[in-house]
Amino acid sequence: MSEEESSTSSVILPDLNIRLICPICKNPQPKIIEEYVNGDLVCGECGLVLSDHIIDTRSEWRTFQNDDNEKYASRVGAPVDPFLPEAALETMISSKGKSDLTKTHFKATVDKNTLTLKHALHEIEAMCTLMDLSKEVIDTTKQLYKRTVEEKLIRGKNKTTFYAACIYVACRISKVARSFKEICASTQVSKKLLAHAVKNLVATFELNMGLMTSEDLITRFCNRLGLTPDIERICSKISQRIEDLGLLTGRTQNTIAAATIHFITTTLNIPISIDKIALVSGMAVHSIKSVSRMIYSEKKKLSDLLGD
């Protein structure tokens, strides 16, 4: 016998056949009731207390909401928010029958600046959710805004403008294609104010965001238009060739992306209207037509890509 087998055989295992039986009823299949309120084990047939001071091993569920709604009961404390100071050290007093004590404790322990920051982060998350942004972008936006508040850049200025600026910068850092025009349309902030706020953020935090290319926008526009991956690849190659040749220098990336898609769909006879492309890209129809004609005039330089 090997050492492993001998050590296994020497281990004393519990006898699972041992059962608790009432000494009065002596029923081989006893009905034992656990009364956790009193901490007793009671025979369900004769009522004899078989054991006392039992330990309640059940989960302790309670709510950490202000309204004590049992629907949101939890075994742990309130969720920790890493963007709030000392978020993991909060102590809450239940409001059941202690409303005055709860209010006094709330006023004494909760900082006004923390409440303001918490409300701002909630608004930022709502904006990002409406724009269908990922959690990575949302967290980056919150971190940028928190640093903006700490550096006192927002003092005396419009908060919504800095919400939009933080969202735009977070998208650029995470390499998520969102243009100025899209951010302005979603947040109702003017392009001039947004550009000024973004410039302040980049200068203050010394950010290196890199340049957004038309290829980044083409991927999202093609997905929203329902175009196939093959068409998307052709559009990306055409856009890259246009950039390499410098054919549309000075045009915005949104316009180049929309015009490239219109040029490809028209050349390959794909039934996508220019109005739909304009709606998806947020660009004017006449701008797309004008740039598309410029691309068509250089069709010979792009013909090798159209044959893929």
UniProtKB/TrEMBL annotation:
InterPro entries: Cyclin-like_dom, Cyclin-like_sf, TFIIB, TFIIB_CS, TFIIB_cyclin, Znf_TFIIB
One Pfam family, short name: TFIIB
Entry GO CC: nucleus; transcription preinitiation complex
Protein's UniProt keywords contain Zinc: yes
GO MF, one example: TBP-class protein binding
Purpose of the protein: General factor that plays a major role in the activation of eukaryotic genes transcribed by RNA polymerase II.
Subunit description: Associates with TFIID-IIA (DA complex) to form TFIID-IIA-IIB (DAB-complex) which is then recognized by polymerase II.
Entry's family note: Belongs to the TFIIB family.
Name this protein carries in UniProt: Transcription initiation factor IIB
Species name: Gigaspora rosea
